[in-house]
Amino acid sequence: MSEGTWAGVRKQIQALAKTAGASTMFGFHGHRFSLEDPLTEPELAEMEEQLGVRLPEDYREFLTHVGAGGAGPAYGVFPLRRIHGRWRWDGDGADLVDLTRLSEPFPVQGPDPELVRALQEKCPQEDDCEEDEDFDQAWKTWDEEWGRVMWNPDRTVGAIVLCHLGCAYRQWLVVSGPERGRIWADDRADERDLQPLLGPGREPVTFTLWYQGWLEEAARAVAASR
Question: Which has the closest alpha carbon to 121: 41, 191, 51?
Answer without folding.
Answer: 191
